[in-house]
TrEMBL record:
Keywords: Cell inner membrane, Cell membrane, Membrane, Transmembrane, Transmembrane helix, Transport. This is ABC transporter permease. PROSITE patterns: ABC_TM1. InterPro entries: MetI-like, MetI-like_sf. Signal peptide: none annotated. Its main location: membrane. It holds the Pfam family BPD_transp_1. Residues 71-266, 344-542 form the ABC transmembrane type-1 domain. The chain crosses the membrane at residues 20-48, 68-94, 106-126, 146-165, 208-229, 249-270, 291-316, 354-371, 383-408, 420-443, 476-498, 518-542. The keyword Transport applies. It is found in: Cell inner membrane; Cell membrane.
Length: 553
């Protein structure tokens, strides 16, 4: 009898695995049609040019002198950007989450604001700051790699603060205090006690920052042009200007491999870091030993505030005088007979569609990967699914956008003229952010609460409504806010897919920059200020929800 029972035990596990795959079928279908199919279509044009596999042309591009320069610049600029982001971001995470002082919430808001700004706006902000006649034009950094690296640090500081900050906030202070009582100095306490406890979150943040630096598009396109190109901008050049699909396919495939490795590293770091305590330690008042940390935070705040202040000043000046001429011009004709206000309306409507798509799919995925696993097979399946849905995080938006054009152009998936094409692409870009916002919250729910509700007669939908929804509704609103802000400023895929007569605001800003003259540049600055203000407003609303660690990776 015992043997018979043992023989039957695997069957429920098989049934649960099949049920898990069944629940994942819908999200996997969406991922397959709107991500894997376009990306594979783009790669297919380069690797199967005549219907048969031929990698010689794609591999040949990797030996070109320019390609090697692009690869080297991508690697070293991303490494430098990551190192400087950690140098400023770790003290900022400590001060913003570990210490108590007036203006703490405002500091958090300032540190996170750059991450939701459109990359085209970030590029234009630093171009305006460092150009001849700009606030820091005398430094001679315009059209230099240092301008790109500074913009990368500006953009990615929030990733370190949001990833490491909550972990630092919940860290038990007693081991560090004991080490200090035994005579260890602040640096030794940091090295031997604090950093080992934070290693997982720091490695996770570093890997994601490197990923974002290596795949930055809009800011590198504005600040670097053709002289300082990264893999992302080179894919854009090969696709749109040179029509070298083999070269673009080779770089896209190389980028995809790097993304997979970095995401695996980040996932492993999060797994080793363990869950974040949802009952943070009470912040303490600053001490004299915290002065160096405050000095680095001051540098980080200056890096954020000075470019934004220069953007405001540039938008409100015309012909060397303070004026609202650039702002008034927003309601008149812009590039290609399209008014900036019309492009702003297009951006908002498109971002709203992208938001409900990303939030709906992201919630389904988060529920799927956070349910309790019964056995190692089911646990590995959920880990694989979680990794699959993170792939859009780092795959070139240019590759995705062009892939849409070459794969979704024939029945039954002829979507090139569909108004949902751009929102779908933007939703895929925002999807990983939504998932990473919701997964920690849902994973922190004690499964025994669901079991208790079920034992009292509640059905699955009632359990979902009374247990999960009660906890996740604030993070869900925050995820929607982040998705809206990201979609509002998405430029890479949108630049391929948007109709010529209905551009979004980031696309119109880039078009304005392509026209010479102070008039177009001034309108682009004013339009960037409006877009930055709108994303800042969305972020302020998200911050008011007071969701700990929201948006972390």
């Amino acid at each position: 009898m015992a043997r018979r029972h043992h023989a039957l035990t695997p069957r429920p596990r098989v049934g649960r695995s099949l049920a898990l795959l069944g629940l994942a079928a819908g999200p996997l279908l969406v991922l397959g049609v709107f991500f894997l199919l376009p990306v594979s279509g783009m790669l297919g044009l380069g690797l199967w040019p005549d219907g048969s596999f031929d990698a010689s042309g794609a591999l040949a591009v990797l030996h070109h002198e320019r390609t090697l320069r692009v690869l080297w610049f991508t690697v070293w600029s991303a490494a430098a950007g990551t190192a400087l982001t950690l140098l400023l971001g770790l003290p900022a995470a400590y001060v913003a989450y570990r210490l108590r002082f007036p203006g703490r919430r405002l500091l958090r808001l300032v540190l996170v604001l750059p991450f939701v700004l459109p990359t085209v706006v970030v590029g234009l902000t630093f171009d305006n700051l460092l150009a001849d006649g700009g606030v820091l034009g005398g430094l001679g950094l315009h059209d230099s790699p240092l301008a790109i690296i500074a913009a990368l640090v500006f953009f990615n500081l929030a990733v370190v603060v949001r990833t490491v900050g909550p972990a630092w906030e919940s860290l038990d202070p007693r081991p560090a205090e004991a080490a200090a009582a035994l005579g260890a100095g602040p640096l030794r306490v940091l090295r031997d006690v604090t950093f080992p406890a934070l290693r997982g979150s720091v490695v996770s943040a570093a890997s994601v920052v490197f990923l974002f630096c290596a795949t930055a598009f809009g800011l590198v396109l504005v600040l670097g042009g053709l002289r300082y190109a990264t893999v992302e901008t080179e894919i854009y050049l090969l696709t749109t200007e040179l029509f070298d699909l083999r070269g673009a396919a080779a770089l896209s495939l190389l980028q995809l491999l790097v993304v997979v490795v970095l995401l695996a590293l980040a996932h492993r770091a999060r797994a080793h870091a363990g869950p974040v305590d949802r009952r943070p330690v009470t912040p303490r008042r600053p001490r004299p030993a915290d002065v160096p940390a405050f000095a680095l935070v001051g540098a980080a705040v200056a890096l954020i505030v000075v470019p934004l202040a220069a953007l405001v000043a540039g938008a409100l000046r015309s012909d060397g005088h303070w004026s609202l001429a650039n702002v008034r011009a927003l309601r008149t004709v812009g590039d290609g007979q399209i008014a900036v206000t019309t492009a702003l309306r297009n951006s908002v409507l498109t971002a709203l569609d992208a938001t409900w798509l990303a939030v709906g799919l992201g919630l389904a995925i988060a529920l799927l990967v956070t349910r309790r696993s019964h056995g190692p097979v089911e646990r590995r399946m959920r880990a694989v699914l979680d990794g699959l849905f993170m792939l859009p995080l780092g795959v070139s938006a240019v590759t995705l956008g062009f892939g849409f054009l070459v794969t979704l152009d024939e029945p039954p998936l002829d979507l090139r003229t569909s108004p949902l094409l751009v929102p779908i692409a933007q939703a895929l870009v925002a999807l990983p952010l939504v998932v990473r916002t919701l997964v920690p919250v849902l994973a922190g729910i004690d499964d025994r609460q669901r079991q208790a509700a079920a034992s009292l007669g509640a059905g699955p939908l009632r359990v979902l409504a009374t247990i999960d929804v009660a906890v996740v509704w604030k993070p869900l609103l925050a995820a929607a806010g982040f998705a809206f802000a990201v979609s509002l400023g998405e430029f890479g895929a949108t630049s391929f897919l948007v109709r010529e007569d209905a551009p979004t605001l980031p696309v119109l800003i880039y078009r304005l920059l392509s026209h010479p003259g102070a008039h177009h540049y001034g309108i682009a600055l004013a339009a960037s200020l409006v877009l930055a203000g709108l994303t800042a407003l969305v972020l302020l609303l998200v911050e008011r929800l007071r969701v700990p660690g929201v948006g972390g990776f």
